[in-house]
Amino acid sequence: MISEKKNLILRELEEGTGAAVSATEDFSGLRAGLRIWFSDFEVKHGPVAEMRAYGLRGHRVELTFGNFSGMVLDQIQRAQLEDIQLARALIKSIRPEVEVTIADQTLTDWTINSGAFRMTAKVRDQARPLEDSAIVATCRDVIVPMMAAMAELIGYDVIDDKPANEIAPYEGAILASTVKRRERNPRNRLLCIRLHGEKCIVCGVEPQHIYGEAGSIIEVHHLEPLATLTTPRPYDPETDLVPLCPNCHRAVHTRRPIPWGTDELRKMREELHG
């Protein structure tokens, strides 16, 4: 049963969304399933994803809101345009073979206006839907983008304990400051990879093909550095984010305050190596 894969599912969702996630078995339907929610909220106070078997060879995931989600819904309705764009892009990134529907709305301009919001995804044609590989695929391809989209709208962000412009007085010193650093947000990495793949756009290296399981080290680069923005602006993950291998990412940022452009770095490589 899917509920027996609880620990595997939680691990995949926490890694993919960057948020703490909880789950419990659900026996309310004909088939036992799993109810999944953000640990920061009780199950009745926020978005909940239910994962169940669908037919003999598939999974069904349905995202709804608990009966007492008023505060979270108010927060979502105050989301900035940038967060809305990212949330929609995450849902758009779900592979086309998965049937995704939103009650009474289209997938291009959906909004969450009330607790009646309902998003459903049906995954079909899985040879062995209860095997770990199939469970992981549904988590990564469907539940992660769904929950990550909700996290963007709610306002989850990653806290970095060390600002980039703060240097410890000596090696090993502990700095007590905290700064929000959107570029460290794992959901941005998720979007970048979904839209552009895991191949470095400068050198063409795809670390996962070289290092196997240890190769998930592709990095996300903002073409317009966040530090140079004089006023905040929404950004499009399809045009503003690109994947770079660690070497090229470090090379791009050797020029400050304006990093090298990816085209400039590619030209340098070509001049040196042909």
UniProtKB/TrEMBL annotation:
CDD domains: HNHc (cd00085)
Protein name: HNH endonuclease
Domain HNH: 200-255
Gene source species: Duganella vulcania
GO MF annotations, alphabetized: endonuclease activity; nucleic acid binding; zinc ion binding
Superkingdom of origin organism: Bacteria
Keywords: Endonuclease, Hydrolase, Nuclease
InterPro entries referenced in this protein's UniProt entry, alphabetically: HNH, HNH_nuc
Pfam families: HNH
